[in-house]
Amino acid sequence: MTRAARVGRVERTTKETSVLVEINLDGTGKVDVSTGVGFYDHMLDQLGRHGLFDLTVKTDGDLHIDSHHTIEDTALALGAAFRQALGDKVGIYRFGNCTVPLDESLAQVTVDLSGRPYLVHTEPENMAPMIGAYDTTMTRHILESFVAQAQIALHVHVPYGRNAHHIVECQFKALARALRYASERDPRAAGILPSTKGAL
Ligand SMILES: [Mn+2]
């Protein structure tokens, strides 16, 4: 049986940004990312590497204003590309979770590729406001944007952590791995849609 390639490609252009995202869910973690926001590139690199997704992201955004539109629009395109790559969701695990520590910080991520967007997110308050050009309040905004387009239920919790870089990075690592587990093909479920409703 030949399986359709699980790839997504989204181009999104507005007056604020121009974004290209390409993703292959069955990749090897080959990543080529440039958004103009160094720390965000580092996070998207985590997503591809630990998700074992091949991921290309090229964003040309209005960084002369700030990094907000660039970060948000990239997350929207990424969510849309991920949804596209999931295709009919037949034969996948659907649910995934992963807990990842990064030194003193811990992230717990649980995902359901449900077809319905819902985000629950908690992280320590009073984090350092900026990591390079990355505004740390954008992490929730990235997750919201990704969830809205990917149409998934996503719960991300950081029960403790001190260093802002660690707090954000462990979230992306755990997200990557949870998305990988949920989107992976279940060898016992070939040809089966993981829903009693008959739709996902
Ligand atoms: Mn916004």
What does it look like?
With 200 residues, the protein is of the alpha+beta class. It has one domain: Ribosomal Protein S5, domain 2. Helices cover 33% and strands 30% of the residues. The structure holds manganese (II) ion. Residues 68, 72, 141 line the site of manganese (II) ion (MN).
Short description:
By secondary structure, this protein is α+β, with helices and mostly antiparallel strands. It has one domain: Imidazole glycerol phosphate dehydratase, domain 1 (Ribosomal Protein S5, domain 2). The protein has helices spanning 38-51, 68-86, 138-150, 164-183, and strands spanning 7-13, 17-24, 31-34, 54-61, 95-102, 105-112, 118-122, 130-131, 134-135, 153-160.
Secondary-structure blueprint of this entry?
Elements: E1 7-13, E2 17-24, E3 31-34, H1 38-51, E4 54-61, H2 68-86, E5 95-102, E6 105-112, E7 118-122, E8 130-131, E9 134-135, H3 138-150, E10 153-160, H4 164-183
Parallel strand pairs: 3-4, 7-10
Antiparallel strand pairs: 1-2, 2-4, 5-6, 6-10, 8-9
Bound molecules: manganese (II) ion.
Residues 68, 72, 141 line the site of manganese (II) ion.
